Amino acid sequence: MTINKTQVVDKNSNSNLRTIYLSRHGESINNLYGKIGGNASLSSQGWKYAKALFSFFQSRPVATIWTSQLLRTQQTAEYLEFGKSVEEPAINEINAGDHDSMTYEDIAEKFPREFAMRDMDKLRYRYPNGESYLDVVERLEKVTKKIQMEDKLLIISHQATLRCLLSLIMGTQFEQLPYMQVPLHTVIELRLGGKEVEVINHRLEVDCVDTYRGKPDNCGVNRNISQACLTVPEHL
Fold this sequence. Notes:
236 residues; alpha/beta; Rossmann fold; 7-stranded mixed beta sheet
């Protein structure tokens, strides 16, 4: 469990302590095979996380549960038989457009220029017929103030989306946003009150793949595929 504190963006918020929980969905089939986006179901380990999430919240009251419109978040919430359930489109994963359900290796091979452009500026790069991180920030801005005023809220969402949401709540630099660590099978507890937010990471004991991809040293369009895929996480 890790704890840190930072400034809350909304300095005029109610000083009473409020708790918000954030979690990615459980490990999905696409996570196992290194595919981005899509609407895959949970893997066997993902289902174990869904059950572990139920156990985790037995001693922690939750009033409302938000899921995205995607199957993997709804399956992750399947055992949570408490609180009001809300399907919120604003917390859908970043839309990968024409690259949806492809692996990083496939994109690097078939669309090397696009792959390099995203590595050069991951914050502003927009997938063909899809979204950029800044597009996700824009749609989340409409619900962030509402989220900050909630208490005992659990949001089950996605890696890119939670990066954006955490940046909005914590006031971090957007340039750092695309490389924030938001691992699978971890509950992020936010305690909001006054001008500070306390962040507590609860790693649940269910094994899963690591989907984090760091920025490669070489982001040039003329790099070879090995250099382009150097930081791609291991997968089946």
